Fold each of these.
Amino acid sequence: MNKSFWILCGAILTLWACEPKEEPIGDLIKSAIYTSMEEWYFWNQELPPAPPAADFGSNQDYLDAITFQPLDRFSYITTLEAFKNSFVGRNAGHGFGFAFDADERLFISFVFDEAPAGKDGWQRGWEILEINGKPIIEYKSGSSYNFNLGPSDPGISNSFTFRLPDGSTTTRTNVKAEYQSNSVLHEEVIEQDGKKIGYWVYQSFKATAGISPTKSVEVDESMQFFQNAGVDELIIDLRNNGGGSVAVAEQILNYLIQSSNSGKLMYTNKLNSLKTELQTSRNYQKLGNLALDRVIFITSRGSASASELVINSLDPYMNLVLVGDRTFGKPVGSFPLSRYNRTLAENDVELVPITFATANSEGKAEYFDGFPADVAVGDSPQFNWGDRRDFRLNAALQLIETGAVNSRMLHTHFKPKWEMIDAFKGLQQEFPAY
């Protein structure tokens, strides 16, 4: 009996030892990331062999290790809630942006109306002298800046000392909070030499929360405003627009296109070789009654993604003029993949890699270097929206008036050593704000 007992126990122990150990959840998630990338990633044929999951401390580090680095600056990981909130403008933070002038003085570049900064009355054009009691130069490291404002969590506070346009100074302590951001930062009609010129500052392509996942009420209202005014020309300011919803970009395109081109090809998208049956094309469907022969875009290196999609899609059909600086260079796009992978969904890991590329009706799709400005003009964040002294707005108005820009304005062009888009990665790079 003793011998039989030990034989039986030995068999049980052997079976137990042979059972595979349960894979750590972190390894399972990284495996799910790799599997999803094999299936959906636009450059899936460039994927390296799956690296050991244990070698990476975070899912983002793992993703960075397998992406196609020569072209992919964009794939990221977030949560489903953060992804959905961003595309309808639900944010947390102070709710403003930074920009440097040619003398490397730092200014507020934009403010969201309902954000803590907006409610405190901050305006584009306020010069920032100190942050948390330290002069701006102390935040510089090499050619970059890190302003140490902390995460976007509600309750975090920072103090800012400003020089206002009238020369006075003020110090404000601002507490981060949740807020609903606006996409339209400014709109007006400028009358010049018998022409009505619409000026529209559009910050990001976001759908309206609670109304539609694919439509912006702000866009409808702005286009109605310009239609009612009977504008002859339109200047669209995208200098701070990092992208957003492709569906909202289509909405804007359908307002801008001429009636004679309604029904024609807007753009096509291309997926990887495993998903060719899902490739689609979009045709224009004219909205409203704007009748424009030309659109002038104000651009910068912060103009990316959906901003560039609008420019590229309109180019075959309209006279376009870009004033400012070269755009960022993102002819590719993403959609979230957790819906296709249970492991990702159950662990609230939203994988957002590059999954498609877009081409206009002439097949133009390769603009990873961005679109160059037709008229290179420096930024002037020291002036508020609509101020005729703003270099880029002034240049656009000169083009409309005389067909050219004077040499003094062209001499304002400079390449900023640091731009706000440099401070953000992933989802935040598409909607950059502090």
Amino acid sequence: MNAITQGNILKALLRFFFPILLGTFFQQLYNTVDAVIVGRFVGKEALAAVGGSSAVFVQLIVGFFMGITNGGGVIISQCFGAKDSSSLEKTVQTSLLMSLAGGLVMTSIGISLARPILSITRCPEAVLDSSARYLMIFFSGLVPMFIYNMCSGILRGIGDSKTPLLILIIGCFSNIILDLAFVILLDMGIAGVASATVLCQVESAIISINVVQKRKDVFNLNLLKMSMDRKILGRIMRLGIPSGLQGSLYVISNLIIQTNINFFGTDSIAGWAIYGKIDVIFWMTTATFGIALTTFSGQNFGAGQYDRIKKATWITLGLSLASTSVIVFAFMNWSQGIYRLFTNDQEVLEKGIEMVRYLAPFYFVYISIEILSGTVRGAGKSLAPTLITVFGVCALRLLWLFIAVPANQTMRMVLFSYPLTWTVTSLAFWVYFLSNRWLKK
């Protein structure tokens, strides 16, 4: 029995959710460990280099391709739910070859544009060279990163969320050991944390490819005989490109926000960098609900179980509301202690704590965006969520940053772009979801 298309919905969601959440946690821990070690053992300038404009540029390049790979994950889950083994096998091969090709292209783009993008975003001269060095090393590891993430998407699409978690745990502990060795023992600084991340991505890619290759019970994958199916590639692109563009436009708006943050100096940049590391607790939890719901929706859509999709959406909204309440409470009451894990610099602490206490209460507004988007994407509808997000989040946010912020250039005016756009986009998603247009094949 397929537990996702039959049986208790809550149990199926939670059984799928927790391994993905832990996996997302360990994936985010890669960069967080980098920030902690750099902030403690190198200095706040290095911390700003790792977590400022460079972090946003990483999200821009990686996020675009990750959005495209989501198209493959949706098709895999639908084929698995419909028990179409032939299409499933072709989709797996096409997705892996696409990851290899895309990784090579994105590596070239990332390395060549690293310094120009940093200059455009007004990255301070004090951290420009360090940021560029970090990015160039980081982007050299995009091929294994993309392959690992695609393998994880393949495994999740067939209902296996535990194996990607185990691979990530191995990679994360390897990353911690290499970070400490490269930074403390070998005194490699920013180059050390970037190199450690790349090596661990290679390790994760090798393990995940071997795991996928051994899943003979679901599909027969021979790495030496893989081929790309043009028809399936077209379906992946139709589903994935809107998602990739959405992610890129989202990050571009964040890049412009980073540019505005840079205006306030190194202390604000470092405070914002740390906020990004702790803020990810909320984002990865909410995103995990969306990922779990996308796979749940995809398999049940393929099996024609539409009522289960709707019930799962409401259940997931309730679970997300409960988890967000805990996160907001923690951020509002314990933010100072959390920030001190990264730095003891008083100016950085004050700037960062102000940021987190202002934005955290607005997290509740964002929940619907991730959950409802996950539902409709699983049903194979990618264009509508993209358009809603592009206009509701990206376009409106850019208008605010270019029109309202210059008139009153304060930190809170910059930060208000988040709750404003979250509210408008959430309302638009509810209108679309309740219309039931996403259920049409």
Amino acid sequence: MKDWLEKHLCDLNLTKTMERPEGFCRLGYTEEEWKSIDVFVMIAENLGLKVHRDEAGNAIARWEPDRIESLPAIAVGSHLDTVKGGGGYDGVAGVLCGLAAIKKLKEEGFQPICPIEVICFASEESSRFGVSTIGSKAMSGLLNKEELESIKDEHGITIRQAVENMGLNWDKIDKARRTESELKSFIELHIEQGTRIEDHSAEFGVVTAIACPIRLKVKITGQMGHTGTTPMGKRKDALVVAAPLIQFISEAAESLSGASEFPIVATVSTIELKPNAMNVIPGIVELGVDIRSVDDQLKDKMKELITDKCIQLEQSFGVKMELTTLVNNPSVQLDAKVRGKLQEAGESLGYKARILESGAGHDVMNMAAKWPSGLIFIRCRNGLSHHPEEFASLDDLHMGTEIISQYLKNETGQ
């Protein structure tokens, strides 16, 4: 099985070796993503699964016993697109282990009493359009077609154009929506993108909830001036004001997290500076702030602390501070029964579980809005992800395969 995993890991990544210093780049709704999905289809069909592509570009591989085709399916899945210069395990591991679990069950002569699906979702990453999980949003009925269709990538291509460039019809993307009766449950396997499993001497993680973000834009308006002639005491330098705010956000999040039951993180992750000229005092700075926790009240508290700090800085420096909420999504609680079954499946095989939350979003958060859903993590080296050196061992991929296989056997056995 490990040889099979190694070969098909490379195949799905469209490479001969996972040693890629430049990383991988398969953005959503591009030829590169489509080629990778074509490989998924080929592997699935070689396993004897029936595959179809829906109106959003998701590929659904189905193991359907002849006599009970009307029953809802047990589904597992993830995605194959990547960020720019990303690794080859984020998303791919879940798709690969799902297919491998089917292979294992078939080799054992297992006969499920209801259908099993492996789903490869389209365009999970937000790297191209700033919008994530498009395929799973469409499948679960959460896609706002009118709101998204005119959003552009860095080359001016809209989401609508990108989807239609792949041979799909944007006007029919709603048809990817599935009914509640089609699926019984959904699970996803993903690399942890952190080190908590290892830090607690465990081997796999079972996820309770997904920390959806509050995202803020802080606009600081000072006053431009000549860097050579404006006295230091008469300046309204927007960047000077931004500096203590950036430090405050980091330190406040660390303090709040240490005093709370659940962790919280807050990051100033974007900055725009105007006019960004060597001889002009910065007049306008815009900061993007990302706040995440599975405790929504904790996120609100962090936002309140930032708001109060902005008022203080505005008064101290004589600048104008504007705070805008771009996103405020409630965190997603995953199904407790599915979580228990995943933990039981892994521990029955002798693997030690760690119960934890996810700070990153995944396709499962959309599926959870409609179907009982669960998420398991496998370890990744040094917690590194969205990076060319992202890595999960074949041992851990094999473990993930075994856990999914056992879960599917428990759920679909006689």
Amino acid sequence: MSSSPAFATDHATGAYYEQRAAEYDDWYTGRGLYADRDRPGWDPEVDEIVGLVRGLPGVRTLDVACGTAFLTRHLRGYVVGVDQSASMVGIAQARLPDGLAIVGDALHLAVADGSFDRVFTGHFYGHLPPGERAAFLNEVRRVAVELIVIDAARRPGVDPEQQRQERILNDGSRHHVYKRYFSGDQLAQEIAGEVLFDGDWFVAAKASWTQDSVAAAARG
């Protein structure tokens, strides 16, 4: 096992999410393996997060690691979803009749400099180890002037950083991913932004910058 954790560049993690696509929404909706989990207050917080997404101004948005578009479909304006999993993208496209879902690399986005108003990402940033985190934030600053991150809240008794968090799929297969949990303030500080939501299960933060800084990021 490598001593350096990876996520976006890890082939085993990519295979796990491809395999998980058909059951991914179970995590949000409490079906399947999540049906018997004790998650007090979970459903109301999911509703709050969906409401937050729906309430965002309608602009050109690139959703990085869009998954099945469970959250993406609630974004207003023109939306492009990107995910490395073809199966995730297939589900996402069916939910984005007025948008587009494509297979792509989150750390090397195949879009022009400054081509979007916003980058949105849900439950992706918290999986990125330091090197991938920096690469992602650099790409975000190249393509947009705003970033909104939704991720998992830090909870009592849960290690806030887990290099090999075990995940089990419906077929019984076991997988491991790198995973971090945040307070709202921590997430906002990391992306140099402000807190949008700080709950028991979810956190959200927003960062923005000028078009001049986008041009500077593109120049490297």
